[in-house]
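One-letter codes give the sequence; the fold follows as tokens. Both lines appear below.
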Amino acid sequence: MRILTLGLNSEGRSCLVDEKEVTTDPIIPGVAYTKLFTTTECPPSAPTPGLGKFDDMPLVPGLMEWQVVDLDPYSEGDEPTLATEMHYNNTIELFCVLEGSVHTILDEGALDLKPGDCVAMPGVDHATRAGPAGARVLSISIGLKGAG
């Protein structure tokens, strides 16, 4: 299992900030855990708006949604959608690939995600394209303040 944290580089372009294998440490007998991502303010602030299209997800800052998202397989011949083209939104997206594969495109490269991969994405430019078998993703979105 990997955790990939996305963010902005010094030029304001979306990029991979950190990638690590998830390991857990015992905290009490029979329980081990690790933090995958934390916020430092409530509600969290949005990063600088991206250059992609703005996806206005109607989440009040600080509130969250927990979702299962099924993605159809992507093909270069498909009509572009907001999800498959570069966009940003006013949420922190925390997601884990459950089935299939996902190709996440950033300003500074792309990530090929497989089952078990977890991503923390705080409102940065990205495009999401499922692999040949599609994908199922478990996602939590947290509304950010000051986006758009």
Observations:
- The domain at 2-143 is CATH 2.60.120.10 (Jelly Rolls).
